[in-house]
Amino acid sequence: MATSNDIRKGLCIEYSNDIYKVIEFLHVKPGKGPAFVRTKLKSVTNGKVIDNTFSAGHKIDEVKVITRKYQYLYDDENGFHFMNNDDFSQLYLNKDMIENSNLMKAGEEVTIILKEVDETPLSAELPQSVYLEVVEADPGVKGNTATNALKNAIVETGARVMVPLFIEPGDKIKVSTEDGSYLERVKE
Predict the structure, then answer these.
(1) Which of 81, 112, 126, 149 is least surrounded, with the fewest CB atoms within 10 Å of its CB?
(2) Does 65-125 match 129-185 in CATH topology?
(3) CATH code at 11-55
(4) pTM
(5) 173-187 confidence digits (pLDDT tens)
């Protein structure tokens, strides 16, 4: 059993019948009144982010987790199949356990968070960005470059990404997995 003084970035805790990962925290000692810890918590099961404040000395339930690298194999109507690169064992995750799963392509390496006690999977984290090939893009309108104009494009995984007008089918682009936004064109 830990206290609110032990809160740090990356810590997994059990809170209101769910498991949350601390993504931001701030220890506050006001001039008047007791100290407290202001946190931003992300649910590892559904990805929702909540703000919460713990008073100083508040007891929290720390959850021991382990992370492993898995290779994405394929998906079916219910979820995704992954393979552990060390022992070649396979793991199955439901579709709702992965945020922005439409940016994953076969062979992609994903970090999966497992509960240490029974090794049940909690969630999966994609890398910060992925490199994808544009398979279809709307035509760019000539003369429409005075502002940062964007157009629709479909990448090899089937995801829709807003890209600049100069991107054409066949180009490789770097896409953020956090929000699915275009980052840059990749030169080969």
Answers:
(1) 149
(2) yes
(3) 2.30.30.30
(4) 0.71
(5) 999 988 888 899 888
